[in-house]
Amino acid sequence: MSRMPRARRVRPLALVAALATVPLLLVACAAPAELKPAALPDGLEVRLQQGRLDVEARRLVVRVENTGGEAVTIDGFELEAPTLATALVREEAFELPPGDALAIRLPLPPAECGAEAGAAVLHVDATTPDGPAAGELTPDDPFDTLARVADADCLAESVDTVATIAVPEHLRAIGSGVDRRAVIDVLVTPAASGSGSFVIDRVYGTTLLNAEGGVDWPVGVEISAGDAPQTISLDVRPARCDAHAIADDKRGTILPFEIRTSDGRAGRLDRSSGATLKAELYQYYGERCGLALPAG
């Protein structure tokens, strides 16, 4: 009978011993468990707001301030609110020295029109001198910006199911100089079918434009889905004759419609002038007022 070489005979014993040490080696080599981030430091405050230009651009301003005594790096944040269809996310890190603040503008998502109103929450990841930190902050919303945005978006949604409201590409005008007169012809095109309706109570005057016979344009027109298209003609005059009014203009060519819908919504719906109409309104303003405005 042939003999098994010694090395072959002892191998099973060596293998058993080796396997017995594997759990110990795995324990010794395992990566340490991740440290749980600390709580956010005291002194971080958040405020939500919008400037005049942010309204038309559909941006929300998230202002983060560090009132604490040490510098904090905000690695990223996520703003959630019941009335927003999706969260607003900031992934780029930024430094906040003590006493400093940063206003961050983020594009607004569509509104969640069926949601009940509730408090917004800001989820924050940060780095402090002591290491990583994470937590939630409740933003201050002193001007009810989120509620106002949701109301405007949901009003627009209700209106759009009934009809489109479109300002024209061009201004309709006659005459010249200070005797020139002009009209903005707003086209309302109802949906071909449906059961909804809305009432345009008035169009408000702006910082640049008023009605020829007053400030606002009383309209009082009811629009229903399935109706024929109709034109609402707004005769316009300068709200004041001041060259600085055009130079400083932000919202003077945005027409605010006061609307009530059959599904219970009410408020102001803005319609912006396109670039051509805006330029023609500026030209008309200057000509009617007898102002020498720079070209372009």
Automatic annotation (TrEMBL):
Organism: Agromyces ramosus
Alphabetical keyword list: Signal
Signal peptide stretch: 1-33
Top-rank taxon: Bacteria
Protein name: Lipoprotein
